[in-house]
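Quick one, tokens below:
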């Protein structure tokens, strides 16, 4: 990885690697107070940049369009925006300091790849109770020494470290970001594209997510560490119809649980290692557990170094990719169709990952870019054991104002060595929806419930 220059960061208290034997207490009350003035209530810089190309945050998008119903196809509220400029292999050197290594590699490798840059809109928003909890977390949350890596303690109902001091704190903010307390996604599809351009749908199904960590009636004292529960059921393609996976993710990876139901065996099996570079059944094994949402699963495989904060061109406000009526329209042979991917200039936290002593991983080095407003990982690059830039990961953020929240509408990776790539979940089918549920019961996220739903 080549060295880069990073501008000074207001309130950047330290930058370095946090090893499992070290810990930090929450910030002071004076520092936390910045969440009510110079910082947004989620921890981003409230002001825009001096050039005016990044505006100030003024509250985000927290109101759905008039007449909107959750069963409606989401429109593009910024369809009238004009492209400011486009970046190709011919002019990429002019913008090199604003592009990730992976994006530059894609521009060099594929003449059809393009970055269309639009005006920046800071649209992130979250419920008020999440902001209130985030303010409390600033002083009450700590990193404690775990069995294999540092884990947050004392946090509840918001990003645990809104004024971060270390790289791993930013990673935890991403993992424990607000994704809705109870959510159901239907009609999503996972597609892979082979090196010769063949498009293959690997999964079509539904996903339900419950985040006990964001239960408005909960508290740090009641929280048992299971912050993210999920179940996924497949109804296509035919060879995979009826398969299912249930996961209960704990901040302590030793307590994380996952089960899979395979129709051919007609039985539930517990997954022995639902983390790291283990292929995930939720994507038919195309992606690893820690490639979902750019980075997923637990952070203990790596030491995390906070490089700094800088202005970068990243995917953002990607309602545009929902407008085609099929996933095939969104895909080209080697990458997503650039006509449907919107890029904007935003400030991001840059964090490097290096394999921790005693650990094994197929990608021992990585670099990740986290949006300052939402804590979402939006881009990531991974190097293989030979030091080659291997995969570049992408996540396309979109606002769901009825929650309100911001999360990926689509994520995936490009394999720069083989030429294959994949994306998940495409939400272009007529049945694709994301809805907020009143409450998803805990017992839904168990192997017994999975068998009852999927047995055929």
């Amino acid at each position: 990885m080549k060295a880069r220059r990073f501008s000074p960061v207001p309130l950047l208290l330290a930058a370095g690697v946090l090893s499992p034997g070290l810990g930090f207490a929450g910030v002071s009350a004076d520092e936390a107070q910045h969440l009510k003035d110079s910082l947004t209530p989620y921890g981003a810089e409230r002001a825009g940049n001096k050039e005016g190309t990044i505006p100030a945050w003024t509250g985000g998008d927290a109101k759905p369009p008039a007449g909107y119903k959750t069963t409606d196809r989401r429109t593009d509220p910024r369809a009238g925006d004009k492209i400011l400029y486009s970046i190709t292999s011919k002019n990429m050197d002019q913008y090199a300091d604003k592009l990730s290594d992976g994006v530059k590699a894609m521009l060099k490798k594929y003449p059809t790849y393009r970055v269309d840059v639009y005006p920046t809109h800071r649209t992130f928003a979250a419920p008020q109770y999440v902001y209130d909890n985030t303010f409390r977390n600033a002083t009450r949350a700590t990193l404690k020494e775990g069995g294999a890596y540092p884990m947050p303690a004392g946090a509840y109902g918001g990003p645990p470290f809104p004024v971060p001091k270390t790289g791993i704190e930013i990673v935890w903010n991403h993992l424990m970001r607000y994704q809705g307390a109870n959510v159901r996604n239907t009609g999503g599809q996972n597609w892979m594209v082979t090196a010769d351009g063949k498009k293959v749908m690997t999964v079509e199904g539904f996903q339900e997510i419950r985040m006990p960590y964001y239960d408005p009636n909960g508290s740090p004292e009641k929280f048992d560490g299971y912050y993210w529960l999920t179940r996924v059921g497949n109804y296509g393609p035919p060879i995979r119809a009826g398969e299912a996976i249930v996961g209960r993710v704990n901040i302590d990876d030793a307590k994380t649980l996952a089960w899979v139901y395979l129709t051919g065996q007609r039985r539930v099996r517990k997954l022995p290692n639902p983390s790291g570079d283990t292929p995930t059944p939720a994507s038919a094994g195309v992606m690893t557990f820690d490639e979902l949402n750019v980075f997923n699963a637990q952070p203990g495989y790596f030491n995390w170094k906070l490089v700094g904060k800088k202005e970068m061109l990243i995917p953002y406000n990607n309602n545009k990719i929902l407008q085609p009526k099929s996933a095939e329209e969104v895909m080209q042979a080697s990458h997503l169709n650039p006509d449907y991917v919107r890029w904007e200039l935003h400030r991001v936290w840059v964090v490097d990952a290096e394999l921790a002593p005693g650990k094994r991983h197929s990608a021992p080095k990585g670099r990740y870019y986290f949006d300052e407003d939402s804590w979402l990982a939006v881009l990531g690059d991974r190097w293989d054991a030979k030091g080659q830039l291997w995969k570049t990961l992408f996540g396309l953020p979109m606002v769901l104002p009825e929650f309100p929240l911001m999360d990926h509408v689509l994520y995936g990776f490009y394999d720069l060595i083989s030429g294959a790539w994949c994306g998940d979940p495409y939400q272009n089918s007529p049945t694709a929806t994301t809805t907020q549920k009143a409450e998803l019961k805990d017992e839904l996220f168990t192997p017994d419930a999975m068998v009852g739903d999927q047995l055929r």
